[in-house]
Amino acid sequence: MAGFRSLARQVRDPRCDLALRRYSLRKCLERFAPYGHRATWDHLCSRWGFGPEDRSPDPARLVAALDELEQARSVWLAYEVEFAERRRKEKHDGLRRPGSVDDWHRLTWGGFGVAWCDDPRLHPREPLAEVLRRLIAALEREPGSVCPVCAGGRLVWQYGLAHEPSTGPVCTDCGILVPRPVLTREALAVARRGGGLLLASA
Predict the structure, then answer these.
(1) Strands 168-171 vs 155-158: parallel, antiparallel or unpaired
(2) If you placed Cys at 117, which of 18, 35, 61, 156 could pair as Cys (CB 3.0 to 4.6 Å)?
(3) Span 59-100, pLDDT tens digits
(4) Which residues are CB-neighbours of 3 under 8 A, at least 6 positions away?
(5) Alpha carbon distance 82, 153 (integer Å)
(6) pLDDT tens sequence across 141-184
(7) Element (H, E) at 70
(8) What CA–CA distances, in Å, run from 175 to 3, 14, 62, 127, 184?
């Protein structure tokens, strides 16, 4: 089974058939898809101007979409290296019990569904790398009361998500399943009660 880098080489290779290059970009999303496969594909298609079902897209647009995906993957892989190093140090210092961020991180290892979007048509508009930087920054600071990606305050608890965890607070503005560790208990309680605007404390 081809890895992300070999698939990326096929996307860039002008000697490859265009259908194979498009297929290889789709296969990259099986290795790294921050919003999930369908929502990440929709994001790349809408940002780079080719249709989700377009069988012969402009090769330059495919490569631009791949560039965006690779930049985001680099951001996430760097975070995973730092995360693993921090856990090693904590274990060395006697802190064996993982925290809530560790529990969340275990479900997203490799970057699939890091900012899960259950509705493939509703996802952040910013570049993937920027979205991941915002999410990582939120994971590294004290919990807040709004979406870490778009700063939206309308978080609604949803059930039956096609992801693990299958329930949680979803931002109605940008569509991501907000990681529970980045939210205060109050924000989680508001989301469970049906959502509504929870203003961030000044």
Answers:
(1) antiparallel
(2) 35
(3) 999 999 999 999 999 999 999 898 888 777 877 677 665 566
(4) 31
(5) 29
(6) 999 999 999 999 999 999 999 988 899 999 999 999 999 999 99
(7) helix 59-92
(8) 29, 35, 24, 15, 19
